[in-house]
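Long-time lurker, first post. I've been practising inverse folding by hand and with some scripts of my own, and I keep getting stuck on stretches where the structure tokens seem ambiguous. Below is the full token string for one chain I'm working on. Before anyone asks, I'm not after the true native sequence, just a reasonable design that respects the backbone. If someone could post their per-position residues I'd love to compare against what I wrote down in my notebook.
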């Protein structure tokens, strides 16, 4: 009689546990558990994927591109400056922000959405060679300002400290991934934008080539690290391009609506994505929407669209 009673007591608990496990498995929609977004600041499409020889991006074109999706019709349809471009990517809303780092984005970022869901600040990191991009972790919206803010490592030592070399940024990136294993990471390089503004063509091209090599090092790390391998989606893009040669000094500057400034690179790789080259018109704010879908968090102010064509 005692054995029968024990079975009757234990069976409902086992049933409840099994039911809970099945529900959790059903709710996990994607294999992706982590997202890394790499932004190559100010590379013009005509010197990168738009150059059919791909001479300045040999690592990407020869070692990486075939494993994910390249979209040849990707654009920044907002203000083509650094802070506005990055903010479009991280908030999913085009905003015309001052480019000095003294004006916060209006709406919350994907980092804030994620932290609100997971209750862990260590799940989201902003890492950038430019100090002013630390502002991407906060916003002016009264329900979100100073709340759910990600960790950041920008510039020499944060906002107002000045730019740092990309080699140091890359080192900090690897340290942070190793120590904190964040679920969502934004990494931004200062090159080739910095050298472009110096109006030295050879240095601008060298900036593209150095960043290409750094991206390959990141690619190797992601695919060989026990935590990130097979669970990580990678996006590679630009915040903006540069003027066409016939406009306002050519490659030295950017900031208008010419195709040189608007047309940017896009690459996506991950366990839930297809492979190949597509030509479907998309834009920066669509990255936010797609990241929200992959990591399954609410993003109420994002105006971009999920890039369903990427998914298996």
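-- Answer (accepted) --
I ran through it position by position. Result:
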């Amino acid at each position: 009689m005692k054995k029968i009673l024990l079975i009757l007591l234990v069976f409902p608990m086992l049933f409840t546990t099994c039911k809970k496990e099945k529900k959790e498995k059903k709710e996990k929609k994607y294999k992706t558990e982590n997202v890394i977004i790499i932004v190559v600041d100010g590379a013009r499409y005509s010197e990168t994927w738009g150059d059919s020889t791909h001479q300045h991006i040999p690592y990407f074109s020869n070692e990486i591109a075939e494993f994910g999706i390249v979209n040849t019709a990707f654009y920044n349809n907002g203000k083509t400056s650094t802070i506005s471009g990055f903010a479009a990517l991280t908030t999913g809303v085009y905003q015309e922000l001052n480019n000095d780092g003294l004006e916060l984005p209006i709406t919350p970022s994907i980092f804030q959405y994620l932290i609100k869901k997971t209750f862990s600040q260590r799940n989201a990191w902003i890492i950038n060679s430019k100090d002013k991009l630390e502002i991407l972790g906060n916003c002016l919206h009264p329900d979100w300002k100073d709340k759910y803010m990600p960790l950041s490592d920008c510039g020499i030592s944060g906002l107002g400290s000045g730019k740092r070399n990309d080699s140091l940024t890359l080192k900090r990136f690897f340290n942070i991934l190793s120590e904190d294993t964040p679920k969502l990471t934004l990494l931004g390089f200062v090159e080739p934008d910095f050298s472009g503004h110096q109006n030295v063509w050879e240095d601008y091209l060298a900036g593209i080539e150095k960043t290409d090599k750094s991206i390959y090092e990141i690619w190797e790390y992601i695919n060989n690290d026990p935590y990130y391998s097979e669970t990580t989606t990678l996006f590679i893009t630009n915040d903006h391009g540069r003027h066409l040669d016939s406009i306002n000094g050519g490659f030295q500057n950017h900031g208008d609506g010419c195709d040189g400034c608007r047309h940017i690179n896009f690459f996506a790789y991950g366990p839930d994505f297809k492979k190949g080259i597509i030509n479907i018109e998309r834009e920066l704010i669509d990255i936010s929407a797609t990241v929200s879908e992959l990591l399954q968090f609410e993003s109420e102010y994002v105006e971009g669209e999920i890039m369903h064509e990427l998914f298996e």
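A couple of notes from the structure itself: The domain at 35-229+238-310 is CATH 3.40.720.10 (Alkaline Phosphatase, subunit A). Residues 1-26 have pLDDT under 50 and may be disordered. Happy to go over any region you disagree with.
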